[in-house]
Amino acid sequence: MPRLTLTVLLASAFLSGCSAISALNSSATPLESYDLQAPPEAPVARSSLTRQLVIEVPSAPGTLMTDRIMIRPRPLQAQYLTDGQWASETPLMIQTLIVRTIEDSNAFRYVGRRPLGGSGDYALISELTDFQAEAAPDGKGATIRVRLTARLVQESDASVISVRTFNAAFPVDTTDTIDVVEGFSSATQVMLKDLSGWVLASLGVKAR
């Protein structure tokens, strides 16, 4: 093999190796993690029931079965922010927030999660269909959209006590990660307050 050809091949291999290492280092860079909080001013019961409530993990489409923060540049296109992620997978994070919010209502003797929480007197089964930032058509800002359909079920006979869909939307000025996360926080807290109030009202529990 001519020396010039060998030199070119070695140089090409070296550059390819550098590119691979660079890509590996880039993919290995840890993303900033964000964790949403339960609303501080959710409904609180005047008196507690002696019953137990278990919260199922919300079902969700495949695009939400991840810890990545989803943004839709177009209605049928799903992408994820490149510099941030949720602290846990989206359905698990929502389940935790629902548990905390309803626990804070002091309406039940016990609020747990399935599968860890076992069975209770009532179960809250839900489907998370929207949990994304939707980019504005002009590229300026976005709307955070949250949509959850919940069913409150009596465990003894699997009868449905009540069904309701909760929608929340919150505009943000930019698609910067911190602005998007703060928008998710605001929209999610609205949804959680409405959800908790509905659970209490469905079981005849009056809030303060």
From TrEMBL:
Q: Which Gene3D superfamilies match?
A: ABC-type transport auxiliary lipoprotein component
Record domain ABC-type transport auxiliary lipoprotein component: where:
34-193
Q: Does the keyword Signal apply?
A: yes
- Residues annotated as signal peptide: 1-22
Keyword Secreted included in the entry's annotation: no
Any idea which UniProt keywords this protein has?
Answer: Signal
For this protein, the record's Pfam families field holds: ABC_trans_aux (PF03886)
PROSITE patterns, sorted = PROKAR_LIPOPROTEIN
Q: What is this protein called?
A: ABC-type transport auxiliary lipoprotein component domain-containing protein
- Organism of origin: Rhodobacter capsulatus (Rhodopseudomonas capsulata)
